[in-house]
């Protein structure tokens, strides 16, 4: 850990979906250690604000890549067009992801499903395909995929999302196999209940329904997951933290949760 922190100032971190939640928290965590950041997201104004905040607060360099990970042409153009000093990416955090709705599998919206699948699976694959070859060539790099407890077992109203996070686990495991003869590391972080904008998106902007998800329990925060991401990346080079399942204390599985009735804020 100590050696990593000493060299963090020379690292380049690429974070997808960096404008809120876990991605934003990861940006602040790595910036606080002096790393330079490549910040991706769909909202260019939010990206610019995050860049300004980080550079002013931590004095680090940052560059923004405003594109949707579903758009492979835009992704390819943006990544290939990075300036030379930004090409050597040390840590890729595949964080972009979402869920829409809680519909039954036979009643859901096909276009919403396409958005979820294209973002959570195909978007992750696109960025991995664009970034990892350079890591292999340099014989240095760490890929950290943000999965979910939802990838371990399906639950009511979440079959498509659960399927995408099961795919993240399979893709992480498969990539680790593909890279076994290299020094590269692959980590799958699987959060349980994390209070971010995630649930508001799931409930299509209904904040009251989103808040009810976390009623009576103290959920994880984006900062908690960022600490876990940083811990995995800062392990000694011969240590590969392959998978981390992280939940709040009163959560046992995706669906088994104890709610005390107290309000936590």
Which helices and strands occur, and which strands form pairs?
Blueprint lengths: L1 H6 L4 E4 L5 H12 L3 E6 L2 H15 L3 E5 L5 H9 L10 E4 L15 H29 L3 E5 L12 H20 L6 E7 L6 H5 L4 H7 L8 H12 L9 E4 L19
Parallel strand pairs: 1-2, 1-4, 2-3, 4-5, 5-6, 6-7
Helix pairs in contact: 2-3, 2-9, 4-5, 5-6
Architecture overview:
This protein has helices at about 1-5, 20-30, 45-60, 70-80, 110-140, 160-180, 200, 205-215, 220-235; strands at about 10-15, 35-40, 60-65, 90-95, 140-145, 185-190, 245. The protein has about 260 residues and is α/β, with parallel strands linked by helices. It has a single domain, classed as NAD(P)-binding Rossmann-like Domain (Rossmann fold). Strands 3-2-1-4-5-6-7 form a 7-stranded parallel β-sheet, sandwiched between helices. Strand 4, helix 5 and strand 5 (about 140-145) form a beta-alpha-beta unit. Helix 2 (about 20-30) runs parallel beside helix 3 (about 45-60) and helix 2 packs across helix 9 (about 220-235). It is globular, with a radius of gyration of 18 Å. It starts with a helix and ends in a 19-residue tail after the last strand.
Query: What gross morphology would you assign?
Result: globular
Mean pLDDT: 94
Question: In CATH terms, what is the architecture?
Answer: 3-Layer(aba) Sandwich
Quickly count the helices. Answer: 9
Question: In what order do the strands lie side by side in the largest sheet?
Answer: 3-2-1-4-5-6-7
Please indicate the count of domains: 1
Order of helices and strands: HEHEHEHEHEHEHHHE
Number of strands: 7
The CATH superfamily turns out to be NAD(P)-binding Rossmann-like Domain
pLDDT below 50 for ≥5 consecutive residues: which ranges?
none
What's the CATH C level?
A: Alpha Beta
- How much of the sequence is in beta strands? 5-15%
- Characterize the largest beta sheet: strand count, sense, and whether it forms a barrel: 7 strands, parallel
> First CA to last CA: what distance?
31 Å
**CATH topology title:** Rossmann fold
Helix content: 40-55%
Structural class: alpha/beta
